[in-house]
Amino acid sequence: MKKFLLTVTAVFVLAASSVFGMYGADNTWLFFLIHGNQLRARMNQVGFTLGNGTVKGTFGFKANTGLTGQIFTTKGNKNLEATVSGGIGYTGDGFGVGVGYNYTYNNAAGGNVDAHTPVFVFNAVNNNLRVAVPVSISSKADLNNGKTDYFGLSIPAQIRYYTGIDAFNYIRFEFNYGQNSYKEGQLITLQKILASN
């Protein structure tokens, strides 16, 4: 009977928990301040959001390996190829504010570029107004293909206002800015000419 009650309790806890606890390097942070305590564990992500009525935090990993979806690669290289995220926020009656940070590690041996993403989130008007401003920054001195001084910037900001009207559930404004720049290097080949005497 004890095992049965424990199993039923576990099923109800898992069924009642929300599963949106992992935030990537985009405007999914829009929902960080309204989510309750939760744990998310899947093959491609693991993370949690915890807090009381005023202060909350989040930490987790989300795989960025495409179709296979594993966090650790195992064939030939044992790299962590995931977005690691963490954040802290304050929620009150009138407003909520939070900051987060994502670090996306890409296979450095393959010449890929890592990304750093600080995030600012803000809620107001009983969580009807939600703002998320992530700023992804990438930089690398040499891309190993004749291109140097790479700099990338991406800002997929979003503002949502939930109206409470069935016909127009929410009004969304998205601001997307991106920049990629690099210098095209010249390959210089030196040849030694051996002169025989």
TrEMBL record:
InterPro entries: Variable_surface_protein_TREHY. It comes from the Bacteria. It holds the Pfam family Serpulina_VSP. This is Variable surface protein VspE.
